[in-house]
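quick one before i forget lol
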Amino acid sequence: MNIVSDDILIEKAQRGNQTAFGILVERYSNYCYSIVYRIVGCKAEAEDVVQESFVLAWQKLKCFDSNKGKFTTWLYTISTRLAIDALRKRRKQEELLSEVEEKQVDDALSHLYSKELEEQIRQATQSLTELQKVVFVLREIEEIEVDEVSIITGLSPRQIKDNLYVARKKVREQLQKVISV
């Protein structure tokens, strides 16, 4: 079975071929979902953000230039920024409603961690700022390189390292509290 390269699919999709774009969606929707879910922490919201990401990617596809970077980096940038927007909207809604809801984490991380550790990490990341959480998810969980995280988030490598340092420290402190109990 011949697998068509991303470059060919992108070129066809840029000319309006919806089938080619559909193949790109199939290839990258799970990974986009994984990133977004880890940022927003809610299945339904993550699904909405991923769908919105692909709609926006389709609308802006003619602007994509492979000479400026990888398609996946461009796509993950869209997804990550929409996930951050979703977090900000949620925070505003929670402030208006003064409701604090605990979010249950699905087993999306279960292939990496046991369910117990996954829950402890999720709880430990709740105290992080939006940027710290995004940087922590992209670098520590998804293991994306600093240069690519910089493109996705718009932060400088120094800002990424600073946010990551603080995020790691906070998560470590939270996990140590649980472990020492």
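fyi Residues 99-113 have pLDDT under 50 and may be disordered.
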